[in-house]
Amino acid sequence: MPQVSAEVWVPVDVDTAFAVSQTTGEVRLRWDPFIRSQRLMDAERPGVGVHTLTRARVGPKMVSRYVSYRPPKSVGMTMETGPWFFETFGGGWRFVAAEQDGVGGTTARWKYTYSVKPGWLRPIAEPIGQWLLGREIRARIAAYAKACVDPDVVAAIGDAS
Question: What per-residue confidence (pLDDT) applies to 52?
């Protein structure tokens, strides 16, 4: 199955890095360039089994379900329903404490795994998906890195705790 991923170092502790990645609502809209809206559907807080509705800025929507939730180390989600061209789609984050130039922080890695349908279209669609989803995930993780040092975002995650 094709995968795309992006990694970034952020100058915040692992707990903060994880919390920023899991923001929803207005806080998420402040930093995530991909989404038009996102909300938890059947719970107040994320966790295994909780569903999320995400609407992309360009139109498609997806209902996904948390399949793992291990603060502050990792989170994984899988598509339950989504755009017609995805047979499967999953995403996940991993966080590891890491120093850079003597400064403490966190390395965050965001990954998508997917397959397209119909099967006969894969030889054409999957390379396009690699390019398109790769561009998207790199833009999103760059925006995430800025959010990790945005005082308003960091204050909002502190208020949500």
Answer: 96
CA distance 32 to 25: 11
- CA 5-77-2 angle, to 5 degrees, is 40
Question: Under a CB-based contact definition with an 8 Å cutoff, are residues 150 and 31 in contact?
Answer: yes
CB atoms within 10 A of CB 38: 20
Instruction: Read off the pTM.
Output: 0.92
Distance CA 138, CA 77 (A): 18
Q: What is the band of 159 on the pLDDT scale with cuts at 50, 70, 90? A: low
Which sign, positive or negative, has the C-alpha torsion 95, 18, 35, 85?
positive
Taking the domains of the chain in order of start, what are their residue ranges? 3-160
Q: In a 3-state reduction of DSSP, which class is residue 47?
A: coil
- As a CATH number, domain 3-160 is 3.30.530.20
Taking the C-alpha atoms of residue 109 and residue 126, their distance in angstroms, rounded to an integer, is: 21
